[in-house]
Amino acid sequence: MKTARSKKTAAGWIAGVCVLLAAAPALTGCSTDSDSTKSKGQDGSASAAPTASTGADAEPTPSPKGRPGGQSTVQEAVATWVTGVVQDRPEKACLVMATAATGGSPAKPNTAAMCGGDTPEARQMKQQIHRLHASFAPAQPKNPPTVKVAKVPVAEKKATVDGEQITVDGQTLKAIVLSNSTGVKEDELGIRVEAAVVGGRWYVTDLGLSVG
Known about the structure:
Blueprint lengths: L1 E3 L5 H14 L50 H13 L3 H5 L3 E2 L8 E2 L2 H4 L4 H17 L10 E3 L8 E5 L3 E3 L2 E2 H7 L9 E10 L2 E11 L1
Antiparallel strand pairs: 1-9, 2-3, 4-6, 5-8, 6-7, 8-9
Helix pairs in contact: 1-5
Keywords: Signal
Organism: Streptomyces antimycoticus
Protein name: Lipoprotein
């Protein structure tokens, strides 16, 4: 089984997944020629309006003033991130991402300056999200896509959402990735999106992908 897990930075954990996609010929994604207009309308616009299911386990948190990223529930954070990837809008996805806490280093959310900037890290982030779009986008996505995330358990302000608990226009994310692949069986593919509360807001902190 090939597995992609988190790296040190938020840009790094997406890069790790892209490395796995590139190493598995049966999977589509992370190619430089992905169709960036696949999830957009005929006029090229791509407004975001994700829909997320909510519940008691979502642990809503207050919205700090002046903070552009993060969401009030785990469902909203994951839905916003998936929507950004499906629409091929790297900055939108970037703003709801954070580096998970490791060892003595606290979790750190991406900033608007980083996501909208032109630094090497920002360029890497945009490139990897653009490439991941090829695997996450359904054949004919709505504009904007309807993204729903099921209620999941929350423990210590962290949660994990399986690829079968996320739907894009009525299809599970796992089914979409499978449809964009060849020769991969349903029981061979695993997708997990991890999220956590950072500074009172929910952010996507990791993406796990396993094949085989």
